[in-house]
Design goal:
about 475 residues, alpha+beta, 3-stranded antiparallel β-sheet, about 15% strand
């Protein structure tokens, strides 16, 4: 295949990977109950289908009006002059002691070495594709942090990359909304549309899910390396964070008829991961955290919670997949409320393996072939074990074992024989010079899913750092943060 054809396929893969499914604004108080007229949205890993025909609204029961949440508090700018700083060495840097872990970390870091852009400090979303979203840059920050902590990145290079990125963010062009545009060039930091064409006025809108992951990454940097905290706080103070939450729900924006239309964003799992991430910046999405519309379903006899807002009644698919729960565990630690869901999510995948002999680790992931991206879920839209594209079309022949899910489950539950089996399976799913592949197809005749992207390689590094830190989440606890800033 010609190089231009390969790049086109990669771009399609990334665009599928960052597609976002959300209902439009509606006049009733419980906004999730509305039906929407779909529009093309590409933002975060909670897919939107641009072509689906949504049926006429049905009568739904009224819900109590959610309380109005105060506007989030923006960090106050400081008078500290802008200057390059050398990060203070972190005491007792974690180290990987097992050869397999060292090999895995080195291979995942190859992706960053190939795809970091010295002009901007941004990292490509997919191998050799100079385009990105803020979800992907959140992954990039956490991957760079993990690499430095694990000794893959020397201090002077870490300093150089952080200063280059912060200079870019300090001058980042912003739309009239006051929030970063959905997509940017990683070479020039110019605003781009979601098809990688110029967007000089930033008319693509914003994704709250993307922004939440990026803000989590910035919080990790400002708390682990307080030398950068003033600059990071000033950068974030430029952004109109109040727009990220509306009436206690996560709030994004999509282009529609020449203007931006604000929409509720997120489904169970991704919604709560993002809301907890925003709390690190004193942004309170109370309804997203406390009042998501959920129901229980049985998958292979195991009880799981799923979002009531599905493709039929909201235009948004209610994927129940590993990604948000694993990121939640690695980065912030699971709270008691979510642990039963996580335990059953793991249990049902293990049970499928025992029942069928098929190694199972579901996820949303890019593919190396049509349709270039699939959401492989334990449950979605009323059916179990669905692998569907952005239009809801099923591709059962392309179910896959996810590399990032395999590494993450083992890091979080290292004593379980099944997670060890997953990790061993994924250990060598990589190109030694380019990084880790997205995974391997369940159908052995189809072989490796050879797509290579930022999220897989960043999460491999995150999982290894989590292990090296003695299974402590990447986000510092308040007490630890206070000690580090002394």
């Amino acid at each position: 295949m010609a190089t231009s054809g390969i790049k086109s396929m990669i771009l399609q893969s990334v665009l599928y990977a960052t597609t976002n499914q959300q209902p439009l604004l509606c006049p009733i108080t419980a906004r999730w109950q509305c039906f929407s007229t779909p529009s093309t949205i590409i933002a975060a890993p909670d897919n939107f289908n641009p072509d689906v025909q949504i049926p006429s609204p049905q009568i739904v029961p009224e819900r109590n009006a959610p309380p109005v949440t105060p506007l989030p508090v923006k960090p106050k700018p400081t008078a500290t002059p802008e200057k390059s700083v050398t990060p203070s060495p972190t005491t007792s840097l974690p180290r990987l002691t097992k050869e397999a872990d060292q090999i895995a970390a080195g291979r995942a870091w190859k992706y960053f070495e190939r795809n970091w852009n010295p002009q901007t400090g941004l990292v490509n979303s997919a191998d050799n594709l100079p385009w990105t979203t803020w979800w992907d840059q959140g992954s990039a920050l956490l991957g760079i942090h993990a690499a430095y902590q694990l000794g893959l990145l020397p201090q002077d290079i870490f300093q150089q990359r952080m200063n280059t990125l912060l200079k870019t963010l300090e001058k980042l062009p912003l739309p009239a909304t006051g929030l970063p545009n959905k997509a940017y060039s990683t070479r020039t930091a110019e605003m781009r549309q979601l098809n990688d064409t110029p967007d000089p006025k930033g008319r693509s809108g914003w994704s709250v899910l993307d922004m939440a992951r990026f803000l989590l990454g910035l919080h990790v940097m400002r708390s682990h390396y307080p030398e950068y905290s003033d600059r990071i706080n000033r950068i974030v103070a430029r952004w109109n964070l109040a727009k990220l939450v509306k009436d206690g729900w996560l709030n994004g924006a999509i282009p529609r008829a020449g203007r931006l239309l604000e929409v509720q964003e997120g489904r169970l799992g991704y919604e709560q991961y993002a809301a907890h991430s925003l709390k690190l910046w004193n942004i309170q999405a109370t309804n997203a955290l406390s009042n998501p519309p959920v129901k229980t379903v049985q998958v292979d006899g195991i009880t799981l919670q799923v979002d009531q807002r599905n493709l039929k009644n909201s235009g948004a698919t209610n994927y129940l997949t590993n990604d948000p729960y694993l990121l939640w565990g690695l980065e912030m630690g699971w709270n008691d409320a979510v642990k039963p869901q996580v335990q059953n999510l793991f249990k049902v995948q293990l049970q499928r393996f025992k029942r069928t002999g098929i190694l199972t680790a579901v996820n949303e992931d890019s593919l190396d072939r049509l349709p270039y991206f699939l959401y492989y879920s334990v449950y979605s839209n009323g059916q179990s074990w669905q692998a569907v594209n952005t239009s809801g079309k099923a591709y059962p022949q392309l179910r896959f074992v996810s590399t990032k899910a395999a590494f993450s489950w083992f890091a979080l539950m290292p004593d379980d024989p099944y997670t060890k089996r997953l990790r061993d399976f994924a250990q060598n799913l990589s190109d030694k010079n380019r990084g880790y592949f997205s995974g391997r197809y369940e159908n052995s005749q189809r072989g490796i899913n050879a797509s290579i992207d930022i999220n897989t390689n960043a999460i491999v590094l995150e999982s290894l750092l989590y292990q090296a830190r003695g299974r402590h989440p990447l986000v510092l606890e308040a007490r630890s943060q206070g000690r580090q800033q002394k």
